[in-house]
Amino acid sequence: MTASLAIFYIFTPCLPANESTHAFIKCSRCCLVHVYVQRCAVLCAADVPGSSDLQILPRLADTEIVDYRPAAELERVYPMGSIRKISGQLRFDGQVSARGNLTSVTYQLPAERTSDDAFTAARETLQQQGAELLFWCQARDCGESSLWANEVFGNAKLYGADDRQAYLLLRLAEPRSDTLVALYSITRGNRRAYLHVEQFASSAPLGELLPTSATLLRQLRSTGKLELPRLSGEPQDAWITLVSRALNQDSSLRATVSGPSAGAWLDALIAKGVRAARLEAGVTEGKGLKIEVIR
Asked: Pfam families attached here (predicted)?
């Protein structure tokens, strides 16, 4: 039996009888050419050569690495706002910029998994490791997908529908607090979904990085809580402003405030215009500041 006939024998049981011969012709070179039978393509799917997963983020089931860029030292700018182009220049309200080592992985997701599913799973995994959210946007709040794909990430595979995208910038917990992780998920017009992950290890200390108030509010709405373990002492003015702005952007939201300095935080937030009726004192145990939505 020839090699081609052997392949034919393997693939035939997966195909309807009236498609076997046609599929064999297309699949005889192990699916390296276009196929009409989706099963054939799935059987031959493979990661790009030399690629690997990032240790901080386990791979989701049945995903495929379609783009991989090994660690390289470079200058990196991560937007912390909606992006747009004005007079040929990329514009955004805030950013984190540094020099360091960057590694990136792009996954194509299986048909049964949405880009939102993959994004949420990755975010939750990183938060369980203590990562701190710096900027989070979704859909059209992020700006144009074409700018994220081509200008920010330099990866045309990530160009898709503006309302099917999400971006998140996180900072890892100590002792890796000088490492950033960027997540970008997208669903293209052909319904293929992708998750792009970047790990950036800064060569110099990143210093104090504050999240946006919109990111704090999105986290409260999405997860029901806001945990800031670093805020263990008396409330700091910059953080009082951020948290109060987040709460005041949604006047219907009620929350409990917990932590060793919960009383001081309650007073500070009320002084910044958050109505006292919306806040309740929680437990004083624990580490740092914790705010939980009252359902």
From this structure: DUF4892
